[in-house]
Design goal:
The chain is α/β, with parallel strands linked by helices. It contains nine helices and 16 strands. The chain has a six-stranded mixed sheet with strand order 11-10-12-13-14-15. A five-stranded mixed sheet has the order 6-7-4-5-8, covered by helices on one side. Strands 1-2-3 form a three-stranded antiparallel sheet. A hairpin with a 2-residue loop joins strand 14 (about 250-260) and strand 15 (about 260-265). The longest helix is centred in the C-terminal third of the chain and has 14 residues, at about 185-200. The chain starts with a strand and ends with a helix. It is found in: Cytoplasm. Keywords: Cytoplasm, Molybdenum cofactor biosynthesis.
Length: about 280
């Protein structure tokens, strides 16, 4: 395969010619294949975790991961960040306050995180299941804006339009529609990238809504609630633990959001429907 579209020498996708079969008809077809590489997150010169990720928007990823894993409490605490290409992967080198690093150093997370892993090397139940603070009031979202947001989001997933292999997380603004999209082979990585990009722009996480192209797993709810997001809408289903956490922390959780259909699992007051608007 040939490598194309590089960031720091690594590629977000590759091209190649493969055997294509449609029933009995065989052709040689060029295809685009999403890339994933080991990404080492390093804090104050100490490697913390290795994640498999798409090598795009890695500074956003590092910022979002640091916030949603509560390694830092505010974007300003990420004092420096540098992305370094290695022969077998990428290092993201960060500097955080020494007090934060001392707490991190005892967490024992120096493990590899698989593409679909959301626990990132947690070694205790307390680390694995964190309970965020109760989210704020947030804004009410119309069902029409939700469906149009997902439609717009699909057209802005440039990497997925090529490869069909990556997840996306998007931010839906009440007046401007979809204002940010981040993609990755891992759904948690895509969400961390989005949160990181929004945090760097000083986004108020109560003034918009989160849309994701994956299922709504427990870790997705946890990451969203940890920064104060009040509504998470997913294309696929939630898990029972995700529903439990969303109910507990006050987050509105929506699943199976496709076309004009959806299911509301928790705190339905933030989603307005057509008959409610007419009334």
């Amino acid at each position: 395969m040939d490598a194309v579209s590089s960031e720091l020498g690594w590629t977000s996708y590759r091209t190649g010619t493969f055997d294509s079969w449609r029933g009995p008809i065989h052709t040689a077809k060029e295809d685009y294949v999403a890339e994933e590489v080991p990404v080492v997150l390093v804090y104050n010169t100490i490697p913390h975790v290795v994640m498999l990720a798409t090598p795009l928007n890695l500074e956003d990823f590092a910022m979002g991961f640091s916030l949603t894993e509560e390694i830092i409490g505010h974007p300003s605490e990420l004092q420096s960040i540098r992305v370094v290409q290695r022969s077998k992967g990428v290092e993201v080198r960060m500097t955080i306050p020494e007090a934060r690093f001392e707490k991190l150093h005892g967490k024992g997370k120096n493990m590899t995180g698989r593409t679909g892993c959301g626990l990132c090397g947690a070694t205790t139940l307390e680390q694995a299941i964190r309970h965020p603070h109760h989210v704020g009031q947030g804004l009410a979202l119309s069902a029409h804006l939700l469906s149009s947001g997902f439609a717009d989001m699909a057209q802005k997933q440039s990497l997925n339009l090529l490869t069909g292999a990556v997840h996306a997380a998007a931010w839906l603004h009440p007046e401007r529609g979809i204002v940010a999209v981040r993609e990755d082979v891992g759904r948690h990585n895509a969400l961390d990238k989005l949160i990181g990009s929004l945090a760097k722009a000083n986004c108020n996480f109560e003034n918009g809504w989160l849309l994701v192209t994956s299922r709504a797993s427990y870790e997705m709810v946890q990451k969203a609630a940890s920064v104060g997001i009040t509504l998470l809408a997913a294309i696929s289903a939630p898990t029972a633990l995700a529903i439990q956490l969303a109910e507990e922390c006050g987050l509105t959780l929506v699943g199976f959001a496709r076309h004009e259909n959806h299911m509301i699992y928790t705190h339905p007051h933030r989603l307005q429907h057509y008959q409610e608007s007419a009334a």
